[in-house]
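Today's session is about reading a structure prediction critically. Students often jump straight to the picture, but the first step is always the sequence itself: look for stretches that repeat, for charged clusters, for runs of hydrophobic residues. Only then move on to the predicted structure, which in these notes is written as discrete structure tokens rather than atom positions. Here is the chain we will use throughout the hour.
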Amino acid sequence: MSYDSLVFEVKDGVGLIRLNRPDDGNAITLETVNELLDVALRCDEDPKVRAVVLTGSGKMFCVGGDLKAFAAQGEGVSFYLKKVTQAFHAVISRFNWMDAPVIGAINGTAAGGGFSLALTTDIAVAAESAKFTMGYTKIGLAPDGSSSYFLARLVGLRRAKEMVLLNPVLSARQALEWGLINQVVADDQVLPAALEIAQRLAKGPTLALGEAKRLILSGATESLESQMEKESRAVAAMAGKLDGREGVAAFIDKRIPKFTGQ
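Below is the predicted structure for this chain, in token form.
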């Protein structure tokens, strides 16, 4: 299926999503988030997609919401933004709850909703030239895209408030030091590095990776006992899957496991 504001392809178990509005900094519109939601659902449903890479075309990852589109709504902007954020948040929810890990290839500036989108990836690789900023309150808006959930969990409450209220622009190296991303590479290596990680994960135990993602996500809000109950159920369920049995057998046999995602 073809899209107008992004490009999607699947190869060797990896779904590559490329935001594709380079002349507008890959800014987010209602069309963008609706297409992203369609792709996210496809990744969740297709067993051939065992890892996902999310990146942008051109020099920017994503500059956030398309402010020109916002302004064009006039007095209807609140209604428009409710539609945008509903779809945008459904995308982020699907990325976080589906089995396939999502690797961010942050090829350039990630601001506003683009910064929020980068935060939601499971692993993030950034180009040396990438910049990171919240930017919402700078233009009189409040955070969205789950950033008010993820940001403080990644950098702590003090730094989260600093980023939200003062809107500093962080370099890729600063973002790495603050724990916002996992790795910094040369600009021309950001997509190859992200694809390498994705290909490695695509060969892994897909169902177990998904369970691990969901346990970490729910652990932020669950009580100790309820979280341990979820862990107990998850590890028992995974032990009965083909990949779980293969992983145990391979360990005993001292060989490399061959996971099939089942």
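Discussion point for the tutorial: The chain has two domains: 6-202, 206-253.
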